[in-house]
Design goal:
The protein is of the alpha+beta class and 77 residues long. It has helices at residues 2-9, 41-45, 50-66, and strands at 20-25, 29-35, 70-76. The chain is globular. Forms a complex with KhpB. This is RNA-binding protein KhpA.
Length: 77
């Protein structure tokens, strides 16, 4: 899943080397924490959160077939 998120996010940003993803997994959920350069945060979130929502939709649908856990994508500082 991390590779999918990176494949989506890296072409959008000006600093692809600063894209980092951490995974926080518990028994019933998986949280992917996406870190980007501060100047790229707006590009990843998009106007009214449209890009972030699209990223989450793709990841949720891909994870639904692979994992039986709830999946979340957080965009952090």
């Amino acid at each position: 899943m991390q590779q999918l998120i990176e494949a989506i996010v890296k072409p959008l940003v000006d600093y692809p080397e600063d894209v980092r993803i951490e995974t926080d997994e518990t028994s019933n959920r998986v949280v992917y924490k996406l870190f980007v350069h501060p100047e790229d945060r707006g590009k990843v979130i998009g106007k009214q959160g449209r890009v972030a929502k699209a990223i989450r939709t793709i990841v949720y649908s891909a994870a639904g077939g692979h994992q039986k856990k709830k999946t979340y994508v957080d965009i952090l500082d």
